[in-house]
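R.M. (postdoc): so does anyone remember the format we settled on? I'll just put the structure tokens first.
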């Protein structure tokens, strides 16, 4: 029998989570020198709402703890207790505990003993109004998961024989697994040796497990990350699920890293990719590609939902009604098609149908669009914590949070923006004394800004710190062979070097940065999204890193061209101009390399019929029709046979249906039913550069 209150409880958890997020944002935005009364009222109302709704839906533990926060806020609101830095930190810990309460309440679980103890210490601190009581740090809770649906995994696990000698905590592993859902376990005693043959230092334990959860297999894999060895772990989905490979598995398959090296790196319990780079077992670019591959699998595996405004649904319903009317008009006109009136009706109905189809496309795509605030909202707390850790005063400002992005973009922007914001705090921001000596305010400022411009989304991370040290970047580029000796790269070329795999100008590696992996992740993710990166930096005044992204991954504005007998599509965002030139305008350098001089700049010419093996039907008259493109700060003139026009195309993944092809980002179906490949401009430029290097 279905639970009639289930849908209302789901709504409660969503609303309570939003209220907790709002409390955190309000706390982080408080000016302790002049606390606004309305901010205190907002905090109190949010806590009161969570308390009341928790009691209504039968979650007394949530209500009781939130009541303690409410009681703490009341004297602050009345002006009898000051809002201090210490109290602010305690309230932030309280918000974390509210999230943890909600997380466990949704799963029908009690708060774990460790967090219960931390809650008691926190309440004592809130009530003491004096010296803080020693407390264990409260970890931020995992994000809420969907209500259990009976899906999950059947697991066979045999503990490693040397588990005891390696100090593996199997009990903790099972606790972590139980946090993912409803866990049932059956120990297999058949693996136990006889008492006479039993070695107390060996582990012979094995279990058959059933985990009911809505979480992806990637989360289950992470629990067994330290103990999975060969055939000792088998995971089978109870319902169809997409498996997400572990980073270690990808690096073993793609980069040839040995299982022993993986285990050695995992034993350090730090980010696997960075440790392997430090150990010299893998190159940074291999880690970047593995992370990109894992992110793609993760996006395929994670079942995500989008909250849609009622207004958008209403517009869709109205539009469907109009389409029904148009369909009736077309049916009537088709019966009178041989008359003049019928032709006129058919023409009018087709025009109306075309308009409504375009509007339907826009409306449906609009459903996938969510505000960028979903990404930005996680960074105020992160900047706050990093500032405390590094002893720097940093303020985070946000603009354009209502700008809408495709839901897929939102998921894939989290990692790039996290690296950029962390770098801005760690590398870009000076200490208070250095800032004051430079005539700046002691508090540094980081601006997160999103805006829609010219059919693209611009997301900027701007800081007022020390700026990029181009002399150090140049020297590092020369040392790593990224810059040829004797050449003088432009400022843009130097700025973009920071995104090269393994590139870092930091002398000492820290827990935050220094291994040169993070910025490569930024570039890989932005490349997957079909965007580009722009960097502006002024020494002593700060740095701006701008991510320019298309509005959506599903539909692309493209320039269709013919090369031989094949049709290709250039993303319009990468096209600068097209022009025709005579054979004498193209010059040869270094053998077969070709360049053309355009407004004082020499641009390499790429013959697509050679690069893509589309020579059949190629125009060999000698005239060149060139399309000037740009990606990642590099330009090239692509030689094509014919420009077919500009049109919107629906992108189909080539990797899903075939395999990854360098220089090709996807495919589309044209109006005549033929398949056209969508070109990856940055990949084509890399292919041409690689071919030239081989010839040289």
């Amino acid at each position: 029998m279905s639970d009639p209150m289930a849908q209302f409880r789901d709504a409660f958890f969503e609303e309570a989570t939003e209220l907790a997020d709002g409390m955190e944002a309000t706390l982080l935005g408080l000016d302790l020198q002049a606390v606004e009364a309305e901010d205190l009222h907002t905090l109190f109302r949010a806590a009161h709402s969570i308390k009341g709704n928790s009691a209504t839906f039968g979650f007394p533990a949530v209500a009781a703890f939130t009541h303690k926060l409410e009681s703490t806020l009341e004297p602050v609101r009345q002006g009898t207790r000051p809002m201090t830095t210490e109290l602010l930190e305690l309230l932030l810990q309280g918000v974390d505990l509210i999230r943890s309460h909600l997380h466990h309440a949704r799963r029908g679980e009690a708060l774990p003993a460790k967090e219960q103890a931390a809650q008691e210490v926190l309440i004592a601190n809130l009530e003491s109004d004096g010296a803080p009581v020693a407390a264990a740090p409260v970890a931020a809770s995992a994000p809420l998961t969907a209500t259990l649906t009976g899906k999950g995994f059947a697991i066979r696990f045999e503990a490693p024989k040397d588990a005891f000698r390696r100090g593996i905590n199997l009990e903790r592993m099972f606790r972590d697994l139980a946090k993912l859902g409803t866990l049932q376990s059956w120990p297999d005693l058949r693996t136990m040796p006889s008492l006479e043959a039993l070695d107390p230092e060996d582990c012979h334990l094995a279990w058959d497990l059933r985990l009911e959860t809505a979480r992806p297999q990637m989360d289950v894999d992470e629990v067994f990350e330290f103990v999975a060895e060969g055939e000792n772990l088998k995971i089978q989905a109870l319902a169809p699920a997409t498996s997400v490979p572990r980073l270690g598995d990808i690096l073993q398959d793609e980069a040839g890293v040995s299982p022993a090296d993986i285990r050695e790196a995992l034993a350090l319990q730090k980010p696997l990719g960075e440790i392997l780079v430090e150990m010299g077992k893998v190159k940074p670019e291999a880690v970047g590609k593995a992370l990109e591959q894992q992110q793609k699998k993760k996006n395929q595996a994670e079942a995500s939902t989008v909250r849609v405004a009622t207004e958008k649904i209403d517009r869709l319903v109205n539009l469907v009604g109009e389409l029904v009317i148009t369909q009736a008009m077309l049916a009537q006109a088709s019966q009178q098609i041989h008359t003049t009136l019928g032709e006129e009706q058919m023409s009018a109905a087709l025009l109306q149908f075309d308009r409504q189809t375009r509007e339907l496309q826009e409306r449906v795509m609009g459903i996938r669009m969510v505000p960028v605030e979903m990404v930005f909202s996680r960074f105020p707390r992160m900047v706050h914590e990093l500032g405390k850790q590094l002893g720097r005063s940093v303020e985070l400002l946000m603009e354009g949070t209502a700008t809408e992005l495709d839901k897929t973009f939102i998921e894939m922007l989290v990692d790039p923006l996290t690296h950029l914001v962390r770098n801005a705090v760690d590398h870009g921001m000076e200490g208070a004394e250095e800032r004051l000596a430079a005539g700046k305010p002691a508090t540094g400022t980081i601006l997160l800004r999103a805006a829609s411009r010219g059919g693209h989304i611009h997301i900027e991370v701007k800081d007022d710190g020390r700026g990029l040290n181009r002399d150090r970047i140049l020297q590092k580029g020369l040392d790593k062979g990224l810059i040829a000796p004797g050449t003088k790269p432009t400022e843009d070329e130097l700025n973009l070097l920071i995104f090269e795999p393994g590139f870092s100008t930091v002398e000492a590696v820290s827990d935050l940065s220094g291994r040169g992996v993070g910025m490569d992740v930024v570039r890989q993710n932005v490349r997957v999204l079909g965007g580009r990166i722009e960097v502006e930096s002024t020494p002593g005044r700060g740095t701006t890193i701008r991510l320019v992204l298309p509005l959506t991954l599903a539909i692309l504005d493209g320039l269709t061209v013919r090369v031989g007998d094949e049709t290709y599509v250039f993303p319009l965002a990468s096209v600068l101009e097209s022009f025709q030139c005579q054979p004498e305008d193209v010059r040869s350098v270094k053998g077969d390399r070709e360049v053309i001089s355009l407004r004082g700049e020499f641009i390499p010419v790429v013959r697509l019929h050679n690069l893509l093996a589309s020579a059949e039907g190629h125009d060999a008259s000698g005239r060149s029709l060139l399309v000037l493109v740009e990606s990642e700060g590099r330009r090239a003139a692509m030689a094509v046979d014919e420009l077919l026009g500009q049109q919107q195309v629906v992108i189909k993944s080539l990797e899903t249906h075939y395999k990854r092809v360098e220089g090709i980002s996807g495919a589309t179906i044209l109006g005549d039913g033929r398949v056209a490949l969508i070109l990856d401009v940055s990949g084509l430029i890399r292919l041409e550069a690689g071919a030239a290097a081989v010839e040289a």
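R.M.: ...and that's the designed sequence above, right after the tokens. Also worth knowing: The chain has five domains: 6-128, 145-243, 310-367, 371-550, 555-695. The domain at 145-243 is CATH 3.30.70 (Alpha-Beta Plaits).
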